[in-house]
Amino acid sequence: MRTRLAGRSAALAAAAALSVIGSSAVPARAQPAAQAQVTVRYAAPERFTDAENRFGSGQPLRVTLAELTRIFTDLGTARLRPDERLDITVLDVDLAGFDRPGFATPTGLRVVTDATPPRIRLAYSLRRGGRAVAQGADTVTDINFLLTSNPRFSTGGLYYERQILRDWFARRFPEPAGRG
Known about the structure:
- By secondary structure, this protein is of the alpha+beta class.
- The chain is 33% helix and 23% strand.
- The strands form two sheets. Strands 1-2-5-6 form a four-stranded mixed beta sheet, with helices on one face. The chain has a two-stranded antiparallel ribbon with strand order 3-4.
- The chain is globular, with a radius of gyration of 17 Å.
- Residues 1-32 have low confidence and may be disordered.
């Protein structure tokens, strides 16, 4: 039974990583004609503060990065105009909570308290028609993340990180797609 759960967990993690990689390999005719482009790079991800479980259980780094890439891509394509291109370089990731060693569960155990907010340092550049219209570097965090979000009804991982990135996109790029 233990091997079966671990195998299923590994299969789900591999499928999540491949779905992000595979989404960029979709033929052009299957993609919408006009859509914003979002490119995500990770600067030295092995040195990130807290992007994986270092105690042998939980999500490996590649799964966390694949999920973050999916979040950035989803939020960017929904928020930006079709002729815009957003380049993001993630400089550091500190996930919400902390790993709890000693629990041998397939997905690990992460303890989230109000003293452990998520934090993502990034640099970005927004281009419209080949011209840079905005660029900068931000530290995306919210010390009130437990008060402003409710993960009870969420699906998928990195719920708190998704919420702070959703807020960042709304503040940084206030004009929704299609307007302008």
